[in-house]
């Protein structure tokens, strides 16, 4: 029921061989995703947090971070999902190449917990791997 936010395989940073210069979780003067502090209680140590306090609430259009490449391009990465920000990956700040080398594992951007009552509708709206590949194929053919 948690969502791990990563760069899509088709993201320009993963396609063009660009070098990542900087990752910034400072969204505005008053908002840093690094200031997100989550605390909560669990009935058993192996279960996830049941009651969360201090987690930032995100909408689908909420920026998570900005990534700058060595060619001067800047990409804003959005949450794309409503929920509570559980964690940001601080490891990519000191090792930004993780975003490109291991985008689906150690190079994740953030972890978001959607509201329980919304999680089913969110997962029903996701594309399957095959549908995603078809969208990419259409996009490439219309661009050429």
UniProtKB/TrEMBL annotation:
It comes from Alaudala cheleensis. It is found in: Cell projection, Dendrite; Cell projection, Growth cone; Cell projection, Lamellipodium; Nucleus speckle. Belongs to the ABITRAM family. This is Protein Abitram. Its main location: other. Keywords: Cell projection, Nucleus. GO terms for cellular component: dendrite; filopodium tip; growth cone; lamellipodium; nuclear speck. InterPro entries: Abitram, GCV_H/Fam206, Single_hybrid_motif. One of its GO terms (molecular function) is actin monomer binding. It comes from the Eukaryota. It holds the Pfam family GCV_H. One of its GO terms (biological process) is dendrite morphogenesis. PANTHER family: PROTEIN ABITRAM.
């Amino acid at each position: 029921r948690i969502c791990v936010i990563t760069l899509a395989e088709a993201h320009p940073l993963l396609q063009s061989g660009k070098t990542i210069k900087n990752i910034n979780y400072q969204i505005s003067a008053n908002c840093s995703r690094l200031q997100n502090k989550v605390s909560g209680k669990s009935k058993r140590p192996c279960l996830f947090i049941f009651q969360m306090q201090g987690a930032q609430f995100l909408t689908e259009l909420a920026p998570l971070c900005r990534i700058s490449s060595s060619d001067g391009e800047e990409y804003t990465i959005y949450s794309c999902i409503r929920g509570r920000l559980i964690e940001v990956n601080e490891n990519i700040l000191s090792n930004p190449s993780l975003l490109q080398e291991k985008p689906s594992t150690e190079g994740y951007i953030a972890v978001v917990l959607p509201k329980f009552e919304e999680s089913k509708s969110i997962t029903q709206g996701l594309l399957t791997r095959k549908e995603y590949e078809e969208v990419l194929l259409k996009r490439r053919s219309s661009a050429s």
